[in-house]
Amino acid sequence: MRQRSGLWLMGARGSVATTAVTGLLALRAGLIRPVGCVTERLEMDHSVLPAWDDIVVGGHDIVSIPLDKRAEQLAESGLIPHSVFTAVAPGLRAVDTELRDGYHPVTHTGSLADAVARLAGDIEEFRTRNDLARVVVVNVTSTEPPVPAMPEHQDFDLLVQALNDPQRTVLPPSSVGAYAALTAGCPYVDFTPSPGIKMPAMDELARRKAVPYAGADGKTGETLLRTVLAPMFTARALNVRSWAGTNLLGGGDGANLADPEQAKGKLESKARGLHNLIGEVTAPLHIDNVPDLAERKVAWDYVSFEGFLGAKMSLQFTWDGYDSALAAPLVLDLHRLVSAAHADGQTGALSELAFFFKDPLGTDEHRFAEQTRMLAEWAAQL
Amino acid sequence: MRQRSGLWLMGARGSVATTAVTGLLALRAGLIRPVGCVTERLEMDHSVLPAWDDIVVGGHDIVSIPLDKRAEQLAESGLIPHSVFTAVAPGLRAVDTELRDGYHPVTHTGSLADAVARLAGDIEEFRTRNDLARVVVVNVTSTEPPVPAMPEHQDFDLLVQALNDPQRTVLPPSSVGAYAALTAGCPYVDFTPSPGIKMPAMDELARRKAVPYAGADGKTGETLLRTVLAPMFTARALNVRSWAGTNLLGGGDGANLADPEQAKGKLESKARGLHNLIGEVTAPLHIDNVPDLAERKVAWDYVSFEGFLGAKMSLQFTWDGYDSALAAPLVLDLHRLVSAAHADGQTGALSELAFFFKDPLGTDEHRFAEQTRMLAEWAAQL
Amino acid sequence: MRQRSGLWLMGARGSVATTAVTGLLALRAGLIRPVGCVTERLEMDHSVLPAWDDIVVGGHDIVSIPLDKRAEQLAESGLIPHSVFTAVAPGLRAVDTELRDGYHPVTHTGSLADAVARLAGDIEEFRTRNDLARVVVVNVTSTEPPVPAMPEHQDFDLLVQALNDPQRTVLPPSSVGAYAALTAGCPYVDFTPSPGIKMPAMDELARRKAVPYAGADGKTGETLLRTVLAPMFTARALNVRSWAGTNLLGGGDGANLADPEQAKGKLESKARGLHNLIGEVTAPLHIDNVPDLAERKVAWDYVSFEGFLGAKMSLQFTWDGYDSALAAPLVLDLHRLVSAAHADGQTGALSELAFFFKDPLGTDEHRFAEQTRMLAEWAAQL
Amino acid sequence: MRQRSGLWLMGARGSVATTAVTGLLALRAGLIRPVGCVTERLEMDHSVLPAWDDIVVGGHDIVSIPLDKRAEQLAESGLIPHSVFTAVAPGLRAVDTELRDGYHPVTHTGSLADAVARLAGDIEEFRTRNDLARVVVVNVTSTEPPVPAMPEHQDFDLLVQALNDPQRTVLPPSSVGAYAALTAGCPYVDFTPSPGIKMPAMDELARRKAVPYAGADGKTGETLLRTVLAPMFTARALNVRSWAGTNLLGGGDGANLADPEQAKGKLESKARGLHNLIGEVTAPLHIDNVPDLAERKVAWDYVSFEGFLGAKMSLQFTWDGYDSALAAPLVLDLHRLVSAAHADGQTGALSELAFFFKDPLGTDEHRFAEQTRMLAEWAAQL
Ligand SMILES: NC(=O)c1ccc[n+]([C@@H]2O[C@H](COP(=O)([O-])OP(=O)(O)OC[C@H]3O[C@@H](n4cnc5c(N)ncnc54)[C@H](O)[C@@H]3O)[C@@H](O)[C@H]2O)c1
Ligand SMILES: NC(=O)c1ccc[n+]([C@@H]2O[C@H](COP(=O)([O-])OP(=O)(O)OC[C@H]3O[C@@H](n4cnc5c(N)ncnc54)[C@H](O)[C@@H]3O)[C@@H](O)[C@H]2O)c1
Ligand SMILES: NC(=O)c1ccc[n+]([C@@H]2O[C@H](COP(=O)([O-])OP(=O)(O)OC[C@H]3O[C@@H](n4cnc5c(N)ncnc54)[C@H](O)[C@@H]3O)[C@@H](O)[C@H]2O)c1
Ligand SMILES: NC(=O)c1ccc[n+]([C@@H]2O[C@H](COP(=O)([O-])OP(=O)(O)OC[C@H]3O[C@@H](n4cnc5c(N)ncnc54)[C@H](O)[C@@H]3O)[C@@H](O)[C@H]2O)c1
Ligand code: NA
Ligand code: NA
C-alpha cells in the first residue's frame, strides 16, 4: 500500500524550493517530463520511492512573498515556462497554506530550545494533519557563514544545556532547523554549505532518534564538472598545475554570496573537494554577484596542466546553467531516496548519496563516477 | 630475470613516434619524470612490465628524414625541450639504424604477400639481432581513409589467396602492416583509426598465431573529454540536445586530415563514440588544418542540453594540447601492457585496454570512468 | 509636415521580418525601449527620419503562415516576450492584410517580366492605398546560392530582352525582387548575401530610376566582431596567422544554410571581409545547423597570432545571440536612413551605410570603427 | 645627421625591460622582424624616429641579477627563443654595465632630495658618457599601491620643501623616479599604473623643464580588448548589463599583484576605463597569481548585454598572451615617439599617445579606434 510522504522545505519561498514545488506539481499534472530526475533512471525497485502524487509539501521561510508570486518572478526570468506557471498557480497557492514562519535570530525572543520546539511543532502538526508516513526536511535556506568551533557543538549534553539558556545563541539558524527536524524524528537533508547538521552533537541526536541524514551542499555546476574532470587528469597521469575558477551568478543566492563572509562556507566546500581530488594546487576561486544574470549561473574554469616532456597544456570550460533548474530535481530525488532509506530503517549519514553533494557527509569520495556507482549499488538494494 | 622487449613503430619517423622515442631515451637518462605514463601509477606488479632500459626500438617508415632531424623540428615547435633534444640526439641516431623502409603501394612491385614477407622479415631480423623476448608492433602511420567491405576481409582463406595474386591490392597499407606483424608472431597495437587489424580475417590470423592485439585510435583530446563528460549528463538525467565540435590542428596529422577523404575514418570513429554514449543527437564535427598551430591541437566543443522544466543550458570547453605529447606516453604504456599480456599468454582483442582508445576493439564501453576501472582490475591481475 | 513611409519586406513572414514588425508595433505602443536601434542614438536631425508611427508595413512571402502565428512561435523560442506578443497580436493581424504572395520560380508561369510586373504592381498599390510618400523595399528572404555570371547581368538592355523571353530564367528570385522594387521606383536594401541587386545592369536601372540602394548582408554577429577586432591586430602590428570560425545556428536560417550550396554565398561574403581586413590567412569557417538552438546563434572564433620575438598567442571568443533580435532593429534603422536619403535626392549605392553590412556595396571599407564614423558624418548632414 | 638617443629603464632587470632590450638587440642584428612595433607601420617621416642602431640603453633597478641571466630565465619560460638569447647575450652583458642601483625607501638614507639628486646624476652621466642627444626615461618598475592625496602633490613649492626634509617620505618610489627624470631634463613615460608623474606638482615641474611626458599603464591585454569591443556595443545601441573579468598571470607582475594592496592601482585603472566607455555597470574584476603560467597571461571576460525586445545575449573572450612580448615593442615605440616629440619641442602630457595606455594622461578618450586615429594624425605631423 502506498504511503504519503512529507517534503518540508526550510527556505520554502526561495528559488530552489519554488522551482522544486512548481516542478513537482507539473510532473503530477503530466505537463513536463522528469528531465534531471535521477531516481527516474536508477535501476531499482521504484515502488519504494514516493510517487509524485504521494509527496505533500510544507515548509518554513522568513519572508512572506506568496509562493505563486515567487514562481511568477521565476517565470519572468525564463526559468519556469509561462504555460506551466499558469497551470500550477492554484496548486502553489494550496502549498502556500502549509508554509510557516521560519526562525530568525533577530525576531526571535526566548531560548533556542523555544525556537526548536516551535519549528518541530510546525513539522509535527504538518505530519499529523496530512496523515503522512514520514516527513523529510530539506534545507534550502540562504547560505550562512561558517561558525567558530565551540565545545557545545561537540558534545550533545553541553549543547542541550546551552540551548536552554535564553542568553546564548550557540547555533546558527541552519543548525536550529536541523535540530528541530531531528527532534521531530524527521530525516534531514542539507542542500546548502551552511553549518546545519555538520556537528558531532547533531550526529549524536540523529543516532538517538534513529533517523538518516544526507548532505552537504548540492553539486550542480562548476563543482560537478570538477569532480568529473579531475579524475581524468589523475587517470592519465597528467600533472595539474593550477585550476582557477570564476562564478557569476544573479538571483537570491548571488546577492547573498556577494557578501564575502557568507561566501566563505561555499568557497571552502568547493576548495576542499578540489584538493581532495588533485592535491594542493594553485586554485584561485571567485563568486561574483551579477544581478542581470537573474537565475542563471555562468562558471569559467581554467585548468593548466603539464604532460610528457613538460608540455604545457590547458583545458577551459564555460558552464551556463539555470542553477535552480539543476538543483530542484535533485531536491525531489533526495526526498525520495531519503524517504526510502528511512522506511528501510537506515540511520546516520547516508554516504552513498555523495553523488548529490559538493561536500559529502560520511565519505571522502569526490570522484563523480565512483559516486555514481555507489549510488547505483545502494539504490539497487533498497 | 628481466627480458628485453622490442617496440616496432610503423610510422617511426612521425610526430607521435619521434616524441615517444625521444621521451623513452629521456626517461632512461633520468632527464624527465614519467608524466603522462599511466603504467607508472597503476597499482600492479610492476615487474611484469618492461623497464625503460629494456625497451629496444625499431620501425618502418616511408620517408627518410633522420630521426634526430625530426626531433629537432619538434623541439623548434616547442614540443620537445631543447636541453632534452641535445642530450638524446646520439640515442636517436642509434635508433635510426634500426629503421627500415615501409610498404607503400606506389613504390611496391609484386604481390601483397611479397610485401608482407618483406615487412615480417624486417621485424624478425630485428628480434633476432637484438635478442628480444618479443616485439610489439604499434601502428602510428598517417591515418588512411576507410576501405570498402570485401569478402576477402571476412574470410581468412580468401584473403590469403588474394594476397598471393600480384594483380590485386585487397588490403590498405595499415592492414598489410598488421598482417606482417601477426605473421611475425608479434602482438599488435593500432593507435590510428585506419582499417589496420579491424577485419574478421585478421582476427582469425591473430588467434592462429596466439597473439594479443589492441586498438583502435588513441584517445587524447576532444574524444577523451567527451567520454568523461557524456556519462555525467546521463547520470544526472540531463537531456543532451546537440554536441558540436571543431578541431584545429597543425603538424603532419593536420595536413593529412585536411583531406576530407582521409579525415573520414577519424570523423567516423569520433562520431561512433558519441552516439554510443548519448544516443543520436545533432553533432556537427570538423577537423581543420591550421599549420601555424604546429604540433598543438585546439578543440572546441559546445554541448547544448535541457534540464528540469525545459531549461536550456550549455557547456563549452576549449582544449589546447600538444597532441603528440599526449599520445607518446600512451604508446609506451601500450607497449608495456601488451608485452605483459603476451608474456601472460593472452590472445585476441584486449578489450580491457579500451581506456586508451576512441574506438575500442572487443568492447562497446566508451565511458572513461568504467574503462579506467576495467584497466585497473585487469592490470592488477597480471 | 510628417510624411508616412512604407516598409516593404521581401520575406515578410520570416524570423527577421516578424521580429522587426513586432518590435515596431511594440515601440509604437511604448512597450519597449529602442535598444539596438542605431538611429535613436545618432547625432542628427531626427525629423528627417520616419517616426515609428509613420512607418506602414507590407511585404511578399512564399509561405502563408499568418504573421501572428509566426510571432507566437518566436515567443515560444524566447525571442519575443510573451506580454509583448499578446499586446501586439492584433496589430500583426492588421499587417497581415498587407502581405502578398512572393515570386517563386517553381510556381510562376510566364516570363520574368511578368513576375516583375506583378511584384511591382503589389508595391505600387500598397503605396497608393496607404498614401505613402515612398516605399523602401528590404530583402530578408532566405539566402540563395551564388549565380553563374552572365552577360545579361552586365548589360541592362540584354537583361530586359532576356526578361521578356518566357523560356529563360536569367535572374534568381532575389534579383527579380530587386528589379521589381526599382521598377516601382523604390529604394532597395539587401539584408541578405543573395545576388539581389549586385549586378551592373541592376545598378544601371537604379540610376535610371534615380533611387538609392544599400547592402549587402546584415552584419550582426561573428563578422561584426571580426571587423571590430581585426583592425586592433593591424594597429598593433601583430601578425595574425590564422582565424578559424564555427557558427551554430537553428531557426529557418540555420536549416537553409545547412545546405552547402545555399551557404556558399554566406561563407563567401564572410571570407571576403576577413581577407580585406588582414590579408590571406588560414581561415576555416563553418556554418552548422543545430535546430535545438532555435533562434539563437553561437559563434566561436579562434585567432592565432604572433607577436614580438615570435611569441605565439591567441584570442578566442564565443558570441551567443538571438540573430533576429540583432537584425530586426537594423532593418528599422535602414528603412529610416534610406527613406531619408531618398527624400534627400540621393541615388545609387549608399556606401556610408557600410556599418550595417558584411559585404558593403560601394566601398571596400570593412573596419567597423571607420564605418561608424562614415555613418555618423553622413547622418549628420542629412 | 642621425643623433643617438638614450632609453633609461626604471626597472631595467624586470620582465618587460629585459624583453625590450633583448628585442632591440635582436632587431639591430636582423634576427627578428619588428612584429608588434607600431612605429614601423605608422605612415610618417621615419627619419625623425631613432633607428634601432641609435638607441643606447641604461637604467635603474633594485635587484642585481645580471641582465643576461634574466633573459635566460625568460628563454626558459618560452618568451625568448633560445637562438636569439644565445646571439644577444654578449650585448646584454654590455648593457648591464650601464645599469645602476635604483632608489628604495628601505635602503635609502637621507632626504628624498638626496635620492632624486643621485638618480638624476646617474642619468646625466649616462647622457654625457654616451654623447646622447637626449634620454627618455621609461618606468617599468613593479606596480605600487595608490598613495593618499597630500597637499605636497598639488603644489610644487610645498613639494620641494618636503623633499628636502630628511624626516619625510612624501613621494612613493615611482614618483621619486619621475622627479629625477624631469630634474635631469628628460622626457618621461609611465608604463605602470603607479603614482609616478600623476600629480599636479609633477606636471608643473615638467612644464618648467619644458619636457613632454606620456602614460599611464601600458595597454596590452584585457583592457586593450575592452577599449576595442566596448565602442561596438555603444555604436550598435546595445545595452551592456555587466562585464566581468578574471586575469590569471604568473611572472614578477603576477607575484606582485597577488598582494591586494599592490593590485589596487591596477584594478582602479582598469575599472576607470570601462566605466568611461560604457557607464556604470556591474563589473567584477580579479587578478590572480598563477605561477605556473610563468610569463603568460590568460584573461577571460564575460559581457552580458541586452538587445531589441529585451533579448539577453553574451560575448565572452579568452586572451592568452605573453605579457612582456606585448609590452616590450610598445616600450621601444614610446621611446621613439617621445624622443621625436622632444626633438620637436613638445611639452607636457602627450595625449595623442593614449593608444598605448590603460589610463591615458591628458585625455579621457578610451576608444581604441579613436586613439589609433589620434596617433596616426599626430605622427603624420611630426
Ligand atoms: N544549484 C543551486 O541552486 C544550488 C546548489 C547548491 C546549493 N544551493 C544552496 O541552496 C540554497 C538556496 O538557494 P536559492 O537559490 O534558492 O536561494 P534563495 O535566496 O532564492 O532562497 C533562500 C530562501 O531561504 C530563506 N531563508 C533564509 N534564512 C532562512 C531561515 N533562517 N529560515 C527559513 N528560511 C530562510 C530566504 O528567505 C529565501 O526564501 C542556498 O544556500 C544555495 O547556496 C543551491
Ligand atoms: N594525439 C595524437 O597525436 C593521436 C591520437 C590518436 C591517433 N593518432 C594517430 O597517430 C598517427 C600518427 O600521428 P602523427 O601526428 O605522428 O602523424 P605524422 O604525420 O607526424 O606521422 C605519420 C608517419 O607515418 C608515416 N607513414 C605513412 N604511411 C606509412 C606507411 N605505409 N608505412 C610506414 N610509415 C608510414 C609517415 O611518413 C609519417 O612519418 C595518425 O594516424 C594519427 O591520426 C594520433
Ligand atoms: N542576424 C540575422 O538574422 C541576419 C543577418 C544577416 C543576414 N540575414 C539574412 O536575412 C535573411 C532572413 O533571415 P531569417 O532568419 O529571417 O530567415 P527565415 O528563414 O526565418 O525567413 C526567410 C523568409 O523568406 C521567405 N522567402 C524565401 N524565398 C522567398 C521569395 N522568393 N520571396 C518571398 N519570400 C521568400 C521564406 O518563406 C521565409 O519566410 C536570410 O537570408 C539571412 O541570411 C540575417
Ligand atoms: N604587458 C605588460 O607586461 C604590462 C602592461 C602594463 C603595465 N605593465 C607594468 O610594467 C611593470 C613591469 O612589469 P614586469 O612584468 O616587467 O614586472 P617585473 O616584476 O618582472 O619587473 C619589475 C622590475 O622593477 C624593479 N623595481 C621594483 N621597484 C623598483 C624601484 N623602486 N626602482 C627600480 N627598479 C625597481 C624590480 O626589481 C623588477 O626588476 C609593472 O608595473 C606592470 O604592471 C606591464
Ligand atoms: Na539560485
Ligand atoms: Na610580466
TrEMBL record, chains A, B, C, D:
Pfam family of this protein, just one?
A: Inos-1-P_synth
Q: Which SUPFAM superfamilies match?
A: Glyceraldehyde-3-phosphate dehydrogenase-like, C-terminal domain (SSF55347), NAD(P)-binding Rossmann-fold domains (SSF51735)
InterPro entries on file? Myo-inos-1-P_Synthase (IPR002587), Myo-inos-1-P_Synthase_GAPDH (IPR013021), NAD(P)-bd_dom_sf (IPR036291)
> Which positions fall inside the Myo-inositol-1-phosphate synthase GAPDH-like domain?
221-324
Its signal peptide is: none
Q: Which UniProt keywords apply?
A: Isomerase
- EC number(s) given by UniProt: 5.5.1.4
Q: Does the keyword Lipid biosynthesis apply?
A: no
GO MF term list = inositol-3-phosphate synthase activity
Answer yes or no on keyword Isomerase: yes
> Which family is annotated?
Belongs to the myo-inositol 1-phosphate synthase family.
Name the record gives this protein: Myo-inositol-1-phosphate synthase
Specify the species: Kibdelosporangium banguiense
Q: What is the lineage of its organism?
A: Bacteria, Bacillati, Actinomycetota, Actinomycetes, Pseudonocardiales
